Amino acid sequence: MKKVSFCGISGSGMSSLAQVLKLSGYAVRGSDRNFDLGRDLKSKTALEKLGIKILPQDGSAVSTDLDFVCASTAVEDTIPDIKAAKEKGVAIKLRPQLLAEIFHGYKYGVAVGGTSGKTTTTAMIGFILDKVGYHPCMINGGLLKDYENQSGIPNIIYNQGDICVVEADESNGSIELYKPYISVINNISEDHKSLDELQNLFQHFADRSTHTVVLNDDYELCRLIQTDKAVSFSIKNPQADFFAADIRPEAGGTSYVFRGKRYTLNLIGAFNVANAMAAIAACAGLGVDPLVAAQTLCRFNGTKRRLEILGAAKNITVIDDFAHNPDKVTASVSALRQYNGRLIIIFQPHGFGPMRSLGKEIMRAFADNMGQDDILIMPEIFFVGGTVSKDISSAHLIEYIKSIGHEKSFFFATKQQAAGFAVETMREGDRIVVMGARDNSLTDLGYEILRKAENE
Asked: Residue 256: in which H helix or E strand, if any?
């Protein structure tokens, strides 16, 4: 039996791979400083119930009988498990390498790329293929609401079939590791890399695809990406191969017309209809009837932290969302604005580097899409440790958004203080949105706000 240890196993990307290896017969262990600090204990328990051994992140998870240690691309040499692996001569394999190895072990690989929408589109494809009996292995970065009752953390669908569906991450360049049977490119917009870099990455991604390249025509990808394998989808261009028309906001969802029939998603926002078109197109490349795929998605309940409604109390709704770059902020806020009620958004930015390069653009996305009565509240930039220059603050970004016209914007040092202000400010009919990436405790913050709303 092969043995592997995961350094930083609580992360969504790492835990999904750990679970896939465990279910496929590996002996799996791991460590995480979040567990050591008493955080993410629900994930710790879920992994342990699956038979994964959790040890402190003090080097004890690394022994000479391991086949390798898996680590994220952001791991630092000072972490005890990494130091122990180097001292004991144990191979270190980065997460993208391991994911690519798993992916290429299947006959048919579907890789979903793009700077926005990857998680939901990947989940949709996995859901369709699973429900129509294609037995996929799907590895995701988000938690699947339809699979919360399965053992472990619900960020995978594990079947022993011949199809693997994954997110292809462009932010660290690991998208270059994949040679997919079907590739999906949702969009190209500046995020962690420049537009020129991204276009080059996605062009090579398309070039390596052996069967179908699913392209978002709304982003003019059919012009930007040169390929003779293109299949287009759109919510704007009726000439696209997969086109959704007459999109309407509904109570708790969004409806659209596809090939003469109206379907309703249990998700809000036109961008989720575009994600559905991408998923349906990808599944069609594997032989799934598009109308069957569209009908199947009517049962799809989405991934957690993607405009997820945590609950409502006294006509105040609390929503949890992962948006963290300009495109995602624009998509989420514009979708929320289609429904009645003032928005109070608590946005916790992550990463000092990303905020230096994209902070002002994110603020412009808020300013352009929020109403004048809507309120933006920002705690300090989320930081998980390591060596980084902290020469920018959320306070600077709040100063900037005020300078471009959104006066109802406020800075607080901590997210607890930000939540407290939101509770003091809320009134009947409001929607309070907890928004940001990387910090798993943001969902707990949303539930805390909900409990306070119930007691008001």
From this structure: strand 253-258
User: Shortest CA distance to 155 belongs to which of 72, 50, 75?
Assistant: 50
Single-letter amino acid, residue 229: K
Task: List the one residue out of 212, 227, 20 whose CA is nearest residue 106.
Answer: 20
Domain 308-455, second-level architecture: Alpha-Beta Complex (3.90)
Task: Supply the pTM of this predicted model.
Answer: 0.86
Distance between alpha carbon 276 and the CA centroid of its chain, in Å? 16
Q: Are 199 and 226 in contact (CB under 8 A)?
A: no
Tokens of 56: 């402190």
Query: How many whole angstroms from its chain centre is CA 248?
Result: 24
Domain ranges of the chain: 3-93, 104-297, 308-455
Question: How does strand 27-31 pair with strand 343-348?
Answer: unpaired
Contacts of 36 (CB under 8 A, 6+ apart): 56, 57
Taking the C-alpha atoms of 31, 117, 228 and 295 in order, what is their torsion angle to the nearest 10 degrees? 110
| CATH for 3-93, options being 3.30.420.40, 3.30.420.10, 3.40.50.720, 3.90.1150.10 | 3.40.50.720
* Helix (H/G/I), strand (E/B), else coil: 97: helix
CA distances from 279 to 111, 186, 218, 442 (A): 11, 10, 15, 28
pLDDT means per 10 residues, the chain with 456 residues, are: 94 94 97 91 95 97 97 84 96 94 97 88 97 97 91 95 91 83 86 68 93 91 89 96 96 94 94 96 98 98 90 93 90 91 95 87 96 96 74 94 96 96 95 91 94 86
Note whether 30 and 5 are within 8 A (CB).
Answer: yes
Cβ-based burial of 58 (10 A; exposed 0-12, middle 13-18, buried ≥19):
middle
User: How much helix, strand and coil, in percent to the nearest 5, is found in the chain?
Assistant: 40, 25, 40
CATH topology (fold) of 104-297: UDP-N-acetylmuramoyl-L-alanine:D-glutamate ligase (3.40.1190)
The Cα–Cα gap between 43 and 15 comes to 9
